[in-house]
Amino acid sequence: MILHALYEYYQRLAADPESGIAPEGFERKEIPFLILLDAEGNFRDLQDVREGIGRNLRAKRYLVPKDCGRTSGVRANLLWDNPKYVLAYAEKPSDQEKANLCHRAFLARFEECFSDMRQTHTGLGALGRFLEKQSFDAILSHPLWREVVKSKGNLTFQLDSDYRPIAEDAAIQARVREKTQDLSEKSERSICLISGKPAPLALLHPAIKGVAGGQISGCFIVSFNFAAARSYGKESGDNAPVSQSVAFAYTTALNYLLQKGSRHKLQVADMTMVFWAEKQEPIEDFLFDLFVENKDDPTRNSEAIRALYSSPWRGSLSVDEDDATRFYVLGLAPNASRISIRFWEVTTVSGLVERLKEHFNDIKICHGPKMSDFLPLNSLIRSVAVQGKLDHVAPNHAADMTRAVFSGAPYPLVFLQEALTRTRAEQDVPYWRAALIKACVNRFIRSEAHSTEKELTVSLDETNDNIGYCLGRLFAVLEKIQEESHPGINATIRDRYYGSASSTPVVAFSPLMRMKNHHLAKLENRGRVVNFERLLARIMEYISDFPSTLSLHDQGRFAIGYYHQRQAFFSKSSEASQSQAEPVSV
Question: pLDDT (tens digit, 9 = 90+) per residue, 210-236?
Fold first, then answer.
């Protein structure tokens, strides 16, 4: 299903002349340096075609014959390669013999493919004469050469009278296609599992690049390079017959999704996620802005969320409520030379929009004026990690979270457990973690067995009578009384009692209620004392007794009750009321 969907995506891109997808036998390759030649094959200049992207330099992408898939040994690419292959350049004298061998392979491939075209084609003629001369000193002494060596970039050739590399010439591309077709005809034919048609089989599939943490040379989704993975004594790709054409199409489509700067790719912790629709849909572009924080344009994320909510009626994200176009989400992670599929989700565009709305509704929670409304996935996941580092997130957690977002399933229980553990350890409920806890509890409530329970709201809910939520509010009020009665106190009751109050309330609240009377007696503003006592009375209406323990989800409600009450204290209405003898508005 995954390969089939990617194959269809390639067909869609190939039908769009503006997509820039490479035709069969070619690829869009980043080539940072061009060797300029004149028509006689003389070296004219060395050109750096990298462009500044932020603090980094990014090479221009050119259409060149597909990478030969070199992993070991000597295999040369056609018309482009690294300095060792193109110019027999060796950084160390001891490597010169290997460099000469590589360069001979580069020459041999050039002659094999274009020997009969050198007399009639200007570009090939110039390149052939340049290679015959074997005089590369002018290039190696060029001021830019150190940069070539330092960047370890690839080189290709261009005539100084032309505006594009020789490899992009139409006649040369036609010849490459002929050669590719000839090789295919000599290969074994069988029924392709994807297309269902007899075709030459791909024994080795092209590599996939761009998965974070994967090998630079690329990884594979389909490979059979050890005995335990083979069946019936078959070798390599024969175990799962996929035609060469389909293998090229699905890998090219996936590499297109994974390329640098792709808006179809998200990095969630250690997982690389790509997404695409069956046909062109605005949601493909909006999804990137919905989940990736744009520091240069912070309003872009909020605008994307607003467009999501207004999509059925207006806005730049126009989505029909009955749009049944299939939408695919694929989570990938490196595993040595292979790529493991972390998750695969297929939905419809209209279904995706509803699930995204559900996700943003679940994580929406009140916050301070300086905090952003936008909550990236990585920030949610980071909130449960030790020291807030994604490196400390357990494997598969990112995939489990992302799967829940796109499938509408309950968020993983482990996230709630870890969020509460981090809260007890840090004695704090920050904005990101509160949003995650609220989302976990609400998704749990909406499951069938708990549908009668009340969901947590965005801000303080004084009508919520859940024991966990009320105890959280009570704890926040007791802490506030202590803070006002002892201004500047170094450690509050939160530092000493949050863990026990949220898990074993009977142990913590008995001494806390006694201390409350002492703290109230210290307050000089008697109107303030009256306000606190009225607030305590309203909360205590829902608390008949302090339970010995709280369940996991009630501990989550405790955290949200505490967070809501603290946010209410710091809201403008509460601050205004602090200086007056009016009842506290929370």
Answer: 899 888 888 888 888 788 888 888 888
Query: Cβ atoms within 10 A of the Cβ of 357, count?
Result: 14
Q: Which amino acid is at 573?
A: S
Cβ proximity of 394 and 417 under 8 Å: no
The secondary structure of residue 220, as a DSSP letter, is: B
Q: Which of 513, 495, 501 is nearest to 548 (CA)?
A: 501
Element (H, E) at 208: none
DSSP-derived pairing of the beta strands 155-159 and 33-37: parallel
Q: Is the dihedral of CA 372, 373, 377, 383 positive or negative?
A: positive
The pLDDT of residue 237 is 78
The pLDDT of residue 389 is above 60: yes
User: Residue 435 forms beta bridges with which residues?
Assistant: none
Q: Which residue has the tokens 């175990």?
A: 239
Tell me the two tokens of residue 435: 């949003």
Question: Which is more confident, 336 or 348?
Answer: 348
State yes or no: pLDDT of 504 exceeds 70. yes
Question: Looking at residue 225, what is its pLDDT?
Answer: 78
What residues contact 25, with CB distance under 8 A and at least 6 apart?
65, 66, 176, 177, 180, 248
Report the alpha-carbon distance of residue 157 to residue 77 in Å, rounded: 13
CA–CA distance, 240 with 222 (Å, rounded to integer): 8
Q: How far apart are CA 62 and CA 22, in angstroms?
A: 10
- Helix (H), strand (E) at residue 5: helix 2-14
CB 560 within 8 A of CB 437: yes
Give the pLDDT score at 467: 94
Q: Tokens 């209406």, residue? A: 541
Q: Are 225 and 240 in contact (CB under 8 A)?
A: no
pLDDT of residue 118: 84
Q: What radius of gyration do the chain's Cα atoms show?
A: 32
Query: Which band of pLDDT confidence, cut at 50, 70 and 90, is reported for residue 126?
Result: very high
User: What tokens does 159 get?
Assistant: 């005539």
Identify whether the C-beta of residue 398 lies closer than 8 Å to the C-beta of residue 333.
no
Average pLDDT, integer, range 393-413: 87
Write the single-letter amino acid at 123: G
Q: At 190, is the secondary structure helix, strand, or coil?
A: strand
Helix (H) or strand (E) holding 35: strand 33-37
pLDDT per residue as tens digits for the range 441-499:
999 988 766 667 889 999 999 999 999 999 999 999 999 999 998 888 888 899 999 99
DSSP 300: H
Q: Is 414 exposed, middle or buried (0-12, 13-18, 19+ CB in 10 A)?
A: middle
Which of 533, 553, 558 lies closest to 464 in space, CA to CA? 558
